[in-house]
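Troubleshooting entry. Yesterday's outputs looked truncated, so today I'm pasting the complete records for two proteins to confirm everything comes through intact. If either block looks cut off, that's the bug. Protein one:
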Amino acid sequence: MGNHYHLILETPEGNLSKVMHFLNGSYATYVNTKRKRSGHLWQGRFKSILVDRDSYLLELSRYLHLNPVRAGMVDHPAEYLHSSYRYFVSDTSDDVSSPQVILEMLSQEHVAARKKYQDFVEKTIGKELENPFDTVYAGLVLGRESFVRRTLDRLSNEQLQDEEIPC
């Protein structure tokens, strides 16, 4: 994606703003130093959505891995250099990607999980997928109705005023 990026992050400490500030700031410093320039790289604040792991995480992962294919940037998700897809479907790894949570949704056996994930993603190449972002509730929560209700019930007015909300 030329003007934005997508991440699936788990922040059990509720420190997403700090993580994103560090990530965007570090990357901006890197690019600005390399290109001998200054200033922001991204316009506006990041968007975040709380995702129901049980019913939407796997589908969201597939949707994001197929984003460069749908955009016509590559023919296959493994061809997109800025994607974690290859770490999901092969034995290679990096210091950033952690596909285990998603792969374990398909199988506890690593080789089988990687193959099942590859099949899950690649069987839909060229097909129209439902955009999971179309069902985000109030721009904040993606999940079944029961998950949305539980999440909203957990957020009291006091928590909504906090800088960070752990979920």
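Protein two, checking that the full record survives here as well:
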Amino acid sequence: MNIEYSRLAGIVAASLMLASCASNMLFEEPGDATFGEANRQTMMAQVIDPDPQYDELVPVSSGEHAAAAVERYRTDKVKQPDTISTSTTSSGPN
């Protein structure tokens, strides 16, 4: 009988680690307390507050700025937004 004990020990260790997992997603049932938790959190992130409470009833705005923006839009002279980069790249050592 030719048994490699290091391979056998690895298999035993791997099976013990897999057996010690607290929860297994493959065997999760719809009756479990955590079933669908990610779905519920995503849904709640998309639902608006049906009764929002604001500090000010009407937000502060400027009619002059709005009128200037409309005029620029009508005359096709819209201000281009600034370009913002959220990541940096490098081409290697210099």
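Both blocks look complete. Sanity check on protein two: Residues 5-19 form the longest helix (15 residues).
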